[in-house]
Input
Amino acid sequence: FKNSSQTDFVQPFRSYISSNYGDQLFREHIDDFLDIQRTREGLIQLEAKESNKALVLKYYNYLLSIELHFPVTESQIKLSFAWSDCLSQKKYASYSIHYEKASTIFNLGALSSQLGSLEDRKTEEGLKKSSHHFQTAAGTFSYLRTYLQSHPLPQDVCSTDLSLEFLSVLSNLHLAQAQQCFYEKAVQAKFKAVLISKIVAQVAHLYDLTYHSMLSPSLKSSFEKLTNWVPDVHTRVVYFTCMMYYQASLNSKDSSRYGEEIMYLNKAISLISEFRRTSRIPESHERIIETFYTTLLKAQRLAETDNNRIYHETVPKDVNQFPIEKKSLVNPICSLKEELSKDVFAKFLPGVILKTTSIYSEKKAELVRKESALLSDYNDQAKGALASLNLPEYLDSFEIPPHRFQTLQERILLLQQKGGAKYLEEQLNSLYDNPKNSISELDSLINLLRDEDKTHTEFSQRFNSFNSA
Output
């Protein structure tokens, strides 16, 4: 488990609620905050009991309610959450609610893991329960990995046990243990060797994935500090791989394929012999490995003797040409959801609403400032353009006296009363028509003057002729 220290929930929430909602609302919920604190204290030194699952889930529901309604951050509600790395025992502390949730989820997975290890696997019911606990652990660690991908932790609390790589190791490891329970059940029930070989092939595959992940550059140094983790998993990889070949040899024997039987036995003996020679076997596995090694040697001698005396089949050299099918019987199980089963702080506004409201107010003020600045610029540009055209004075010189209107709004209302744009269009058209009418009148006057001049000339000529006579 990840271990923790006590955290005070009362005072930080008292300050925040009193200043934002008033003292009365805090007094109504003080029992809830005290219960949260007691519940968390029960998780500090968690024991492997089935009843403690409900305790962890209860606290997790409290965290969901707090996250929904309150801003738990270093700058607002300052709750310091301290947890130890389960690998190095180093303490990490943060004000992040995501760190608290991640540590709680981790301990839920660890609890399922320990419950699975405590079941009596000599009975069918015990194997069933154990496999379910291991699948739940795998699902919980897988869920935590997904959660941390979408809610990355602050750099100062990125402990190894909450790294994505380590959580993948834990998920695969518990799936391997869950699949192993099905293998043990198949052996107890004396299933056919062909089915057992498929089940144990998947066991070996999952342990192999786990083992190679442990040796990755980001995790190798951490696992090397743990005395038995890597040797234990490595031993299981070799044991179950050899068991896969052993079960396949039994199936070959049942199918009268005696050359294949010997091939599988040879491969198993080769792997386990190399392992015994080059690797450190944990004390808890020594007897199992030695007993199984003896079983393999005995089966090989009998198979070779029978083949040499009776069957005379050729023994294939390349075992890879005879792959063994894997059959998975397990899946990650996780009942955790980001949904509240009971919202104890329903009277408080959701934090997302408060945050959204604050963001809205800031954006609204910014938009008003921006638009006001643009409006001022446009007004200045309009005034400059009108001034350059001497337009305000020119407009004021028309029919409507300037003193009758004090504001632009009054002028707009008068324009609307006279017909709006249509009135303006008529006035403009009249301006275009006036020059034409003036020209026509001038032409008429010129013609009259010409006629008058012509008449005058004629009369002058006649008058002069009369005088001469």
User: Anything to note?
Assistant: DSSP finds 15 helices and two strands in the chain.
